[in-house]
């Protein structure tokens, strides 16, 4: 991956020194190789095609690049959809303090179905914007730790190197590296990304490294965290409203009411936790940190109540009745919990990764969630949504452009591939039915199912014969 093509400048003349703490961060491209079922390198590109026939509302322009706001990944069961999301989560977890433990690298999730790949490193590379500056960061790991790591950026018109490491040695240091003397006491560690070391609070010289760590650890968010944890985070923000809060009651209620689930209001109540619950809170906090999620589970217990209107025999309103959220449907609880990561990235920018977005949610509700990201009014900070799904109803030109639709497919050797609908050489017109053609197998990435024939009579006869022997 390190041999990737040079990046042409799509930014202004700003460089790292001008990056502020709160900047717009956008994913351009993600590459991964030898991770789980991805034996060969695959590329998830968020660069939009320039075809004018495609909807412009689903993209935003940054410099000379047009980037996709959302990307949907379809495919058969066990084709590699979740593995792609997990690979991004894995890379982000390496930026967390807990990743320093050797056991994190003891068994890297390599492709294990051939004798060569199982002994090769896992490779990751991200291209992204931080503010106006384009970056390319890569990392390869094996059982012994970090094999190589590199960071390039575009300060003006040509890509420039910040650093390259091979194992524990810095093999290249760019001319933009402000304080080379600091490297006399800051050295790469076998089990720690060098960008993480440079971004620590104790290292004052490298503010740009903190911005990159913040992007990888905080602004790439995964929804693959138990709903109960996101629920707690929603409850804490609703109860402890401050200027920093991204979850507000008005925003949460707006989504819940628009979802047509019969909720008129909500309230959150607090009570002191027992010692056992406080220990559980400590464990939750530790889990959050391991997943790269900021924040603590406090020593108080929270309970959300959903309010529903009551009616008399004449169907006139009689006020409200409140129910603990645990009595609500699984879909309602899921939607409530999802509001933390959704509102967070919409208000602060970043990338939200969702595996199986349709889980417990109606297709029309999923469509509205996607629309929150595709709509400039609700997504002013250029947040991006990457999700996997089996919900083929979302495969509609009203919802997604062709270059926003990706497929995963696994061959008979267990190797997953990733490709876009836009890459398929077919005559696709505006009235082309994506769904019917996908289910007909025209795009691949569907299961080829057997007959599922079961002969219970033969089983019964065999059982009787066994009993008589």
Automatic annotation (TrEMBL):
<dbReference type="Pfam" id="PF13304">
    <property type="entry name" value="AAA_21"/>
</dbReference>
<protein>
    <submittedName>
        <fullName>ATP-binding protein</fullName>
    </submittedName>
</protein>
<keyword id="KW-0547">Nucleotide-binding</keyword>
<feature type="domain" description="ATPase AAA-type core">
    <location>
        <begin position="72"/>
        <end position="395"/>
    </location>
</feature>
<dbReference type="GO" id="GO:0016887">
    <property type="term" value="F:ATP hydrolysis activity"/>
</dbReference>
<dbReference type="InterPro" id="IPR027417">
    <property type="entry name" value="P-loop_NTPase"/>
</dbReference>
<keyword id="KW-0067">ATP-binding</keyword>
<dbReference type="InterPro" id="IPR003959">
    <property type="entry name" value="ATPase_AAA_core"/>
</dbReference>
<dbReference type="GO" id="GO:0005524">
    <property type="term" value="F:ATP binding"/>
</dbReference>
């Amino acid at each position: 991956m390190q041999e990737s093509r040079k990046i042409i400048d799509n930014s202004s003349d700003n460089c790292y020194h001008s990056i502020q703490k709160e900047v717009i961060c956008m994913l351009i491209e993600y590459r991964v190789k030898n991770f789980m079922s991805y034996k060969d390198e695959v590329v998830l590109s968020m660069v939009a095609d320039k075809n004018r026939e495609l909807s412009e509302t689903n993209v935003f322009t940054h410099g000379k690049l047009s980037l996709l706001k959302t990307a949907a990944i379809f495919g058969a069961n066990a084709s590699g959809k979740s593995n792609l999301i997990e690979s991004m989560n894995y890379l982000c977890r390496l930026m967390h303090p807990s990743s320093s433990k050797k056991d994190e690298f003891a068994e890297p999730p390599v492709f294990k179905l051939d004798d060569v790949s199982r002994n090769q490193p896992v490779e990751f590379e991200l291209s992204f914007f931080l503010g106006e500056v384009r970056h390319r960061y890569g990392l390869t790991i094996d059982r012994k730790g970090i094999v190589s790591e590199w960071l390039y950026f575009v300060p003006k018109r040509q890509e420039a190197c910040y650093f390259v490491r091979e194992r524990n040695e810095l093999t290249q240091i760019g001319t933009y590296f402000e304080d080379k003397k600091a490297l006399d006491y800051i050295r790469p560690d076998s089990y720690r990304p060098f960008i993480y070391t440079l971004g620590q609070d104790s290292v004052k010289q490298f503010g740009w490294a903190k911005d990159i760590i913040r992007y990888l650890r905080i602004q790439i968010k995964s929804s693959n965290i138990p709903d109960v944890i996101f629920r707690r985070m929603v409850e804490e923000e609703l109860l402890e409203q401050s200027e920093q809060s991204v979850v507000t009651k008005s925003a949460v209620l707006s989504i819940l009411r628009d979802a047509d689930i019969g909720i008129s209001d909500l309230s959150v109540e607090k009570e002191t936790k027992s010692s056992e619950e406080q220990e559980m809170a400590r464990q939750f906090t530790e889990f959050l940190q391991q997943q790269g999620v900021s924040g603590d589970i406090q020593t108080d217990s929270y309970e959300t109540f959903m309010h529903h209107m009551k009616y008399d025999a004449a169907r006139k309103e009689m006020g409200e009745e409140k129910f603990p959220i645990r009595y609500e449907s699984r879909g309602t609880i899921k939607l409530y919990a999802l509001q933390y990561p959704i509102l967070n990235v919409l208000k602060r920018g970043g990338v939200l990764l969702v595996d199986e977005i349709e889980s417990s949610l109606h297709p029309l509700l999923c469509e509205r969630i996607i629309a929150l990201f595709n709509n400039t009014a609700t997504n002013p900070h250029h947040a991006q949504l990457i999700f996997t799904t089996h919900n083929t109803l979302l495969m509609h030109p009203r919802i997604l452009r062709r270059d926003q639709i990706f497929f995963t497919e696994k061959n008979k050797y267990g190797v997953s591939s990733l490709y876009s609908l836009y890459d398929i050489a077919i005559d696709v017109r505006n009235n082309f039915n994506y769904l019917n053609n996908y289910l007909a197998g025209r795009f691949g990435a569907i299961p080829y199912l057997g007959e599922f024939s079961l002969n219970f009579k033969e089983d019964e006869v065999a059982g009787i014969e066994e009993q008589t022997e």
